[in-house]
Predict the structure.
Amino acid sequence: MTHHTGLVLALTFFLMAHLPLRAGEATPSDASGGVKILNLYELEKQASQKIGAGPFGYVQGGSEDKVTMRENTSAFDRKQIVPNGLAGIDGVDMTTSFFGIDLPSPIILAPMAAHGLVHRDADKATIRGTRMAGTIMAISTYASVPIRDIAAAQPDAPFFFQLYMSRDNGFNEYIVGKAKEAGARAIIITVDAGTAGNREADVRNNYNYSSETPNVMEYYEEGNMTQSQARELRKVSFSADDIRFIKQVSGLPVLVKGVMSPDAADVAIRAGADGIWISNHGGRQLDGSPATFDMLP
């Protein structure tokens, strides 16, 4: 695996720990304890029965007709594993190293906002879970908890920081500095979400996601800035200059997330990106784009 072309599979998951919510309620749970997971399909069904329709639709939904969202799963189903019982292999070792962090398998957590929609411990619970699993958390710009508090919840847990770049480079430099100060090992620039996707579940449920974004509020000194308000400040168009700027002000490895075309990959690498993250934002942005698995070499 080379420095620039190495790929790591990012598994996005939620662990809904005995959420005692009834349909229609939007209050996040404060329950604790484990939850038995047989598979992710059944976990999603259990969550749908415990989380209000609005928050669940936001977490689970894709954009438009959800064609790309379904294709992301179907692409994995189409790829087959050809067994070879005569390979002479005794035991399997999936351990690897990613940006100097030892991992038991090439699986890390993708960045996600709004953990506070489903549990009051929000991102603090997530980082404790990633530490138990021996993997890496990616903290979102729109995390429900300040970056420093997430890091303090599990001081020995490695994490990356995902940046939704603002049109204001003062904010970009500020929040990257906060992430580095808290211990971030790398910066992830998301380039596929300049505008919000048209998620029909939110319209159908009349759901206006209004969770606060403490990491954005701190810079702009706003008392109650929501994710919807923060999105209005986001940068829409990206170039190689943005990658070079974040590398310069952070001094950390930079990954570019949302790369789907070879041309974009070439621009990112030539600009000095330390990794590219093949992603269509989970089918939550541009419906009709290819499945991520189909874009791999």
Remarks:
- Residues 12 and 110 are 5 Å apart (CA to CA).
